[in-house]
Amino acid sequence: MRIKRALFGLLATIGLSATAAGAPAADAPGRIRFAYASRSNSVTPKHVAQSKGFFKAE
Length: 58
What we know:
Distance between the termini: 92 Å
Shape: rod-shaped
Order of helices and strands: HH
Radius of gyration: 33 Å
Largest sheet: none
């Protein structure tokens, strides 16, 4: 009985140290940036003027 307990303790120690040593550290989560088009038409005059060539001289 004493040998079984010692063997179990030894195997448990080896198993736990192997899993702790073999586990890679997790990378920090990356940042994700979302962009979406506005539903506002406040920039429409600029796009129309640019497509008609009003800003070519600048």
